[in-house]
Amino acid sequence: MQKNPSQFLKRFEIRKSLPFWLILPTIIVILIVQVYPALYTMWLSLQERRPTGWEYVGFDNFDKLTKANLFPESIGHTIIFLVGYVTLTLSLGFLIANLLKRNVPLTGLYVTILFIPWIIADIIAGLVFRLLVTPDYGLFSGFLAERGISILTDSRPASMLGNFPFPPSPAMIFLILAATWRALPFITLLLLASLQTIPHEVIESAHIDGANRWQITSHITIPLILPTMVVALFNLILGGMNGVGMVFSLTGGGPGTATYVLSYFLYVLGWGQLRFGRAAALALMIAIVNWVLIFLVLRVTQLHKKER
Question: What CA–CA distance (Å, rounded) separates 217 from 88?
Fold first, then answer.
């Protein structure tokens, strides 16, 4: 019995379009949670809320934002925070991962304890660290008071670099330490997993050839785990640029404006002052900075690979 050619073509068309129908739910979810919010933010950045409704103002929100006194200051604070946070977290994570790789006794217990900060929300972690330095009853407040330091009230020292906020305030330094404590477990475990994939024979061969520990680390270990370090760097940059929970609960941007980073400035504009147009404009600026930083990291990584 011969098959009907029309039925054969119909089945072929169904099979050909089946992959599309299978991924359609995923496409819809992406459109709802990513594409639509991004397009709405672009639209909102060109609008201003009036008593009569939304009014198109073009790039006026961007102009007013760049002229605000807090904008350049928050950029400076963000740079200081990112440099301190990323450098400290990546360095400590690499060091601890190397120590755990040596299979010391109770390594599993250490890894479990190390992971505890990662499961704590940013808001809760910030509140805990704030309680540690709260004047009068904080765990470290007495020790700090004896040295004339108050984390939550001391203003930023006079700047050594003009308008750039350096040196940072004690609150900014404490914020960097708190953020590092929160992110360190994930970065450490990420690097530890990558270090454990390096063949032991490679390290032994380097020792036999007379390489010292620094040469092994710089010429063998780091190049082999470089892709993982790039992933860790992405995670730290995006988390540091966009995270607001720790700043909100630990310092509230203070003392004064000493810890006003861009993400907290965005929160204040949107939910503190209800200037949603300017907040959307700042959100787009932060997104562009994220893309530029990621591009630069990828570019530097590619150049490093070519040199080797």
Answer: 18
Claim to verify: residue 103 and residue 236 sit in the same structural domain: yes
Q: What is the arithmetic mean of pLDDT over 255-282?
A: 92
Backbone φ and ψ for 260, nearest 5 degrees, come out as: -75, 95
pLDDT at position 43 over 50: yes
Token output for 9:
């073509």
For residue 217 the two structure tokens come to 């680390």
- Given a cut of 90, is residue 49 above it in pLDDT? no
CB half-sphere exposure, 216, CA atoms < 13 A: 18
Same domain, 242 and 255: yes
Number of domains comprising the chain: 2
179, 248: one domain: yes
The answer to whether 54 and 47 have CB atoms below 8 angstroms apart is yes
pLDDT at residue 1, rounded to an integer: 47
**Can you tell me the distance from the alpha carbon of 62 to that of 45, in angstroms, rounded to the nearest whole number?**
8
Domain region containing 46? 5-61
Its pTM stands at 0.87
